Amino acid sequence: MNTNLLAIDAGNTRTHVGVFLDGKLAQSAAVENNDLKGLGDQIEKACATLDSKTDKCAMLASVDAQRDQQLASLAAGRIDGPFYRAEKDLSVPIGRQLDPETIVGVDRLLNAAAAYDVLRQACIVVDAGTAMTVDLIDGAGTFHGGAIAPGAQMMLTSLHKSTAQLPDLRFAPPQEPVGHSTAQAMLTAVFHGMRGMVRELIEQYAQVIGTFPVVVATGGDAPTLFKDFDMVDRIVPDLTLIGMALTLQSATKTQL
After folding, report:
1. Are both 128 and 223 inside the same structural domain?
2. Are 51 and 153 in a shared domain?
3. Number of domains composing the chain
4. Mind telling me the catalytic residues?
5. CATH code assigned at 169
6. One domain for residues 224 and 152
7. Dihedrals φ, ψ of 236, to 5°?
8. How far apart are CA 14 and CA 34, in angstroms?
9. For residue range 85-111, what is the model confidence (pLDDT) as tens digits?
10. Among 3, 80, 81, 175, which is most buried by a count of CB atoms within 10 Å?
11. Domain that holds residue 134
């Protein structure tokens, strides 16, 4: 079965809405979580794109359980077809080697599944969003977890709120390696600190599995942080949405 899917990926800060036609991503857009009108408009636009398809469905992946019902109401009533929640209704097709009782964010599993489905080899997924995760998938397609750190904006906001004089900044690349103002010093520390952390983690993971894996980056800050970073092999902005389509395709094949 070809995938005709409305995919909604609800993160901590933004919600991504994607449309897959015949298994391929046809359109995607990101909306701030507090912009309910914008989100509704994007879902309406996505549903209009799917109108001509007889086989269609919707899927939600959310890291915030409190928003599940709100988003489900926005999507389920607009699609003439099944509505699924990733991991709750359809299992993400990725093996896991984790501590017992561990609860993993569905976005991390979807990213891992999407990356491994294409690469078919050991890989690392760096998701640079509200938080930054650096996760390891081995050569057999098993998700091992990894590292979770504050994202770039969270670091800057924490510096502002936890001190008396540091300014409130929006994340952007620093103008030069040495910050000659307080603002530039903060941006320099966050930018190079995050890249340095990723480099160190990649090297540590490589020692664990005995080879340097392919590194895939995603998330809203990935282009700013990694577009010219020698440790990152590719940037895939819609990796989580691609993992949702893969999850649907995997479940459909199983049912057949």
Report:
1. yes
2. no
3. 2
4. 107
5. 3.30.420.40
6. yes
7. -125, 95
8. 8
9. 999 999 999 999 999 989 999 999 999
10. 3
11. 95-241
